[in-house]
Amino acid sequence: MARVDGPGPDRAGVGARIRALREARGLSLSALAAEAGIGKGTLSELETGQRNPTLDTLYAVATPLGVPMAALMDDHDGAVIADDGILATRVRVVREPGRTTEVYLLRLAPGAERRSGAHVAGVEEQLVVLSGSGSVEYDDEAVAFGPGDHVRFAADRPHAYRGGVEGFEAVNVIVTPG
Considering the entire predicted model, what is its pTM? Predict the structure, then answer.
């Protein structure tokens, strides 16, 4: 599989935000790790900035904390997070009463897959494909897409993105209520 590389997030800043949110909610390290489905040691290393956060881990932690992923990432436009074959660049975050809208430029390498657990209740995602091809799975449905296509779905259930033969580049808009 081809790899999409990019600079990593500010580990110390991400860790500090996770810890602050966890403590504000009165959760122990063990309790949050269990709810997120990750190891306590992994969470501890994230909070101390000793481990690079992945997209999967950030989403896993954001859901039980009840926050959008943007609340955990570097809090500036242009922040980047990369996993094997995936690069997400924050374009804009708009925080309004009643919702947070996150906009990312999402790149998946050919054949790369990004699986996501359910986000918090009411989250919706939209994908506008700029180039390449791929598919998104949600609600036991797989939707193939290509340049210019638009896919909209409820993201408060498990879903997945897959890069096609040439991978894809898309604008990903995530709207989180509350």
Answer: 0.75
